[in-house]
Amino acid sequence: MADDPIDETADPPKEAPNPPAQPLTPQHVAPGAGAPTPASPSTPAAAPAGHKPAAPPKPAAPAVPAEKLAGKTTTVAAEAAKQPDRAPDDSSPLLTRRGWIALAWGSFTAASAAALAATGRFMFPNVLNEPPQQFKIGFPSEYGPGVDERWKEKFGVWIVRTPNDVAHNAPGFYALLVTCTHLGCTPNWLSAENKFKCPCHGSGFRPTGINFEGPAPRPLERARIVLADDGQMLVDKSRKFQQELGQWIDPEAFLRV
Amino acid sequence: MAESKTVQTIAPKEPALTRGWNYLTETQIWKSIFRHGAPVTDRNRVLVMLTNVFLHLHPVRIRKSGVKLRYTWCMGGLSFFLFLVLTFTGLLLMFYYRPTLEYAYSDIVGLREHVPLGIMREMHRWGAHAMVITVWLHMFRVFMTGSYKPPREFNWNVGVIMLVLTLLLSFTGYLLPWDQLAIWAITVGSNMARATPFLGHEGPGAALLALGDVKLIHAGDDARFALLGGTFVGEGALLRFYVLHCVGLPLVIAVLMAVHFWRVRKDGGISGPL
């Protein structure tokens, strides 16, 4: 910034002297010291038209000579004649030089913004290759008592058949999600010790899903389990039931058999 | 007026936008980023170019013919622009593409069917075709304007190498869709490597490289094998072409581009009409 006044004085004003419409007052230190200019790299798209009144009037900027408009329509000739502040080489019949630059930067900015938005959208695919949230797991007669691990890998649930559930006081099935309620690891079912044990931080859960050791703050979650029309059991992981919220007593959190 | 009041010139109050702009450009953050004023003088215009890492890649001044489309065709610039487009779109494609026999083709289909803006892969493909064309036209222009002559003969050779690298990038990318067209095109293309002098097992001179009855160059260790990572276009070829296409060749061509652009300036700028 400090260089500007030096340059302004060093360079002989080529285009125009300070415009008379812009009186030199104490607040006006030097032209270009603070006011944004259309050519500033940081404000490429700033509408230059807004600064038009402050633009120095070109000395002796004549209307486009009539002979240059030979062959053009009279409307264009009239429009061009209305532009008294144009440089002699700024003779485009459609837009001023500033207009063209604003159009170019505006188009470039718009295209860049669209490309950026498209790139962001690209990162969110419309199809996922992930296991379904809702699935059938066979008939109740296919399951013995206790914890069944056959769907742990594929769907991420344990199917437990109990003679007397803690929440429903009835025999039947519930589906436990295999996500530890501490930090989201997958616990192991230790049949010898009759508990789920998380290998990450040592949280332990009873077969009911109730936590009893380690850092886990709450029981494992249960998923919706109902009988489908064909008699198979249907598990829906998109509907979860949390014991600490009293949701295990929901009829769809437990399948009475 | 009766009262003798000192007449003071009071400047008109500036609009809020101007005051805000003045405040912003006086902050330390702003001044730490922009070391000079707006490029409204010749000196500041030069400073803008020299103090910006991106702008300084372009010379501050070039001769008038250098910006004339009818002289340069802008083919070098367009080739570089297409390289940037291909780098960017290729990077995005890498988020979805897996170079394995199991997934390669279905991932390509998925890029069209499952991922928003399936045009991303088409942009990469068409951009690649376009870059091959612009690189050839750039070479044609350089030849027709005699720009290969001293002192630019070294840069001509750099350019020839980059032409070959462009074709190799196109060739390696051609295999990645892993459809019938890709596999057989690379099968045919890589069969040419069989005939490499000395290094291809069917090439001239390969028979000379033998110890008694033991052939040193055979189908299991010749140039074609090194290219494919096997004796036919299989999983090894797919992975090798993928790594070459995404990392190896772009790295080499980027370094050569830096040399190329640097030498253009060191050899006196874009050549002018004689």
What does this structure look like?
- Chain A has two domains: 36-122, no CATH class; 134-256, Rieske Iron-sulfur Protein (3-layer Sandwich), CATH 2.102.10.10.
- Chain A is an alpha+beta fold and 257 residues long.
- The longest helix of chain A is centred in the middle third of the chain and has 26 residues, at 97-122.
- In chain A, a hairpin with a 5-residue loop joins β7 and β8 (211-213).
- In chain A, 19% of the residues are buried.
- Chain A is elongated.
- In chain A, the strands form two sheets. In chain A, strands 1, 2, 3, 4, 9, 10 and 11 form a seven-stranded antiparallel sheet that branches.
- Chain A has four helices and eleven strands.
- Chain B starts with 15 loop residues before the first helix and ends in an 8-residue tail after the last helix.
- Chain B is 58% helix and 1% strand.
- With 274 residues, chain B is mainly α.
- Chain B has helices at 16-26, 28-33, 42-50, 69-72, 75-94, 104-113, 119-144, 153-175, 180-191, 223-228, 235-266, and strands at 210-211, 214-215.
- Chain B has a single domain, classed as Cytochrome Bc1 Complex, Chain C (Up-down Bundle).
- Chain B has a two-stranded antiparallel ribbon.
- Classes of the chains: A alpha+beta (257), B mainly alpha (274).
- The interface between A and B is medium-sized, with 29 and 32 residues.
